[in-house]
Structures are given as C-alpha cells and as structure tokens.
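Hello again, I could really use a second opinion on something today. I've been staring at a protein lately and its backbone has me curious. You're getting the sequence in one-letter code plus the fold written as tokens. I'd be grateful if you could look everything over and explain what you see. No rush at all, and the record is pasted right below:
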Amino acid sequence: MPSKIEKQIEYLYTQVKCLQDNTKGAGSSRLEYSKSSGKLKGYFTDGETSEVDVPTAYTTNLSQSEREQALVPTDWQDKVVGISKEDVNLMDISQIVDTFFFPTISAYIGALSSISYSSLSVGLTYEVGVAVTPNFIVTFNRGSIQNGDGSYAGPIAGTYNQLVVTNSGSTTYSNSSPESSQSVTMPSARILDFGGNVWTITENNSAGTTIYYDSEGVQETISEIESLKGVTTRSTSFTISGRYRYWVYQGDQDSAPINSAGVRALPTTDLMRSDNTATFEITVLSGTQSVVVYALNGTDVEIIDKNTNSNVTPSPLPIVVNDAASRAVNYESYPIYLGEVGYPQDTVFEINIT
C-alpha cells in the first residue's frame, strides 16, 4: 500500500503538472509513482508516456519526519494561504512540492454552532381544543474552530445566557442559566387552535471570543469565522396541528344524535386533514334505518352508494358541536333515511368531505 508521502507525490503531480510541464504541452491525464524505481510515470492525453525521476526533480528543504507527519486536509485548496496560479508559475519544482505538500493552512470551522430539540413528549396532530403540554430536551452546540494544524482552538459561540420558548408570540418558558443539554418542562398547557400551533425555541449567547492560529502558529482574523462568532441568537421550532373532526351515525332513525354531547359520543369519528377535507368509506349493515354524517359547516359533503353507484347526499341541517375544549363550532348533519327495514344487504358508502 502506498505511504502517505507517495500518495501526496502522486496527488501533487496530478494537480500541478498542467501548470508546469516542460515535456508535454498536452498535460498529464494520469500519473503513477513507482516506489521501487523512485520514478513518476505520466500518461498524457495524446497517448504518450514519460517518466520523471522524482529524487532528481525534487529536493525538499523539509526533513523526512516533517514530510511523513504532515496532515494535509482533503480540501486544502480552500485553506492554503496566499497561493495563486501566478505564484506557482514563478516557483521551481522543489518550491512547488514544498508549497503544495506542506502549505500554510488557515484556521477553519470544525463544526457550526446549532440548536435542536428532541424527546418531544406529545404528538404533532390533535383535535382542535385539546390541551397539550409539550416537554422536550433542548441541545446547544457552540460549534468549534480548528487551528490550521488541526488542533482545537475553541468554540464559535460564547457562553449561553438565556433560553426562551414562545407560543403564538407569547413567552411560555424562560431560563436565564441554560445548559448545553436542557430539559424543558412547560409550566402550563396550551389549548390548540385550528391549524399550526408553533412553539419557537430561542437560545441567546454572548459573542465568541476564541483566538485561532494558522498552521505556522500565526494568529489570524478571518471574516467568515468572525461573523459566525458574532451570532448571538439561534432558534428552532416545532408545530402541533389542530384539526376538526367528522362523525358518522348508523342505527335507528329516531336515535340519531341531535346535540353536541350525542355527536361527540359516536364511535365512528376521525380527524379531518389540515385543509378540512376527508375521504373514507363505511359499511352500512343490512337493516340499518339511518346514516347521518356530521361535517364542519362550510365544507361540501358527497355521499355515494357504491353498490348502485348513485349519489345519495341529502340536504344538510345545521347543528352545533363543541370542540375538545367545549367551544361551540358550527357543523352540519347529513341524514340519510334508508327505510323502515333498511337495505336488504350490506352496502358501502363512500363519503367525500371537501
């Protein structure tokens, strides 16, 4: 297996041969280094090959141990300090090799600072009016700055000084001494409104103060790093959706619910989609006198008897049905009378609420 320095030699010649190639104007498309012969063989785009005696072409001023211990980042091109194509064109081969094998590397960002949440104690979809108390864990990452030699310089962000949780613009939780991993227990429940109920988690910190150095130990000031050090607020959020329900009654005609309590007690129910629509099927048992669909006022309901492929949608009647917080909501009922003895056999109704 090639050593690190052998890989670096091959990589170097692949990168710079097109900049300085006194042998083949067409440039090299592939180069191989032979450990046994100490030669670099180039395969050129015009189909020809040539060999370079690496020890003759390259005499470094660096010691063997310095070369063997060198750690060059894979994205070194973005971190080399002050090297341009024009600079390379003025260098001899030894200068090129030393510069590109062992460049002066600037400090860089190891990991960005961040905020996240986990272990949410509640689901993300409930009926409108349900009271939820979402507890969770907030994790802060101050990020990291690496010196040019790869060593850890320090965090990007300064110390934490406040954690705030807001819902619908109102502060519901605040902690002036947050930790890097903070359990949050909301002090009170939130009654869900229709649509998205958003909890926003905001972390405030002081500006970063980390000092960092290039690979030669020279202190640096890099605008990208300094701008990140100046960020003092980070936010994330989660949304719990509040949705309305529909209900369906099957049974004797005289037993169909006519008030909120009766409707809410029906076992056939589900949440509508976020846009107040729903599509579902029910099996109507033989002998059933009546089917009643209860849907939110303002929606359109279509009921199809799939056995006969006929539209059996009746005219709606107004009814008030409370949400989960006992707040009155306008609904409509769609009563279908199937006869004193009902249908002689089971049938399927397709119900579309739009």
